[in-house]
Amino acid sequence: MSPQLVKRQPAPFELSISRLIDAPRRKIFRAWTEPALLVQWWGPHGMTTPECEMDLWVGGQFRTLMRAPDGSEYPTMGVFLEIVAPERLVFTDAFIPGWIPSGKPFMSAEVTLEDQGGKTLYTARAMHWSEEDRQAHEAMGFHDGWGQSLDRLVTLVTEGMPD
Asked: Ranges for the Activator of Hsp90 ATPase homologue 1/2-like C-terminal domain (predicted)?
């Protein structure tokens, strides 16, 4: 078994969400790594993502701007730590491009895509730097927000995206 597919123990300050998706993992990986696709599903229902930039290499930028219906904006910026197509993505907000510390790291994220006979077991893990950050993320609506984003991702890869 390759190292990226080894079942990991939960991190001390982790939140996660998993779902079996009726789509091949290559499509889901594309939806995660092509900005024109990511902007179609990133964020909870009612949110838009008018900006997305990605440099798909270790140390490359991962930047999004989500916008709420009331006009509030939620920027994120970080770097990719690991990219194993089409199995795994890991990124963090602990650094900005150039490996410059971000000042206030909140979390690192890991997305794994496990082949299940043409379907994909999707798991997204948000690993926080402290229990306080984990609790804050949960209070912000992690499960609902990431779940709604996942609903939008599933719709894209099963209905709105060519093979």
From this structure: 22-157
pLDDT tens readout for residues 74-111: 999 999 999 999 999 999 999 999 999 999 899 999 99
Using the structure block, give the residue that is written with the tokens 């690192």.
108
Q: CA 142, CA 154: separation in Å to the nearest integer?
A: 18
Determine the topology of domain 13-157 in CATH.
Alpha-D-Glucose-1,6-Bisphosphate; Chain A, domain 4 (3.30.530)
Residues linked to residue 83 through DSSP beta bridges, in sequence order:
89
DSSP one-letter code for 103: S
Residue 122 neighbours by CB distance under 10 Å: 23
Q: What is the DSSP letter of 5?
A: G
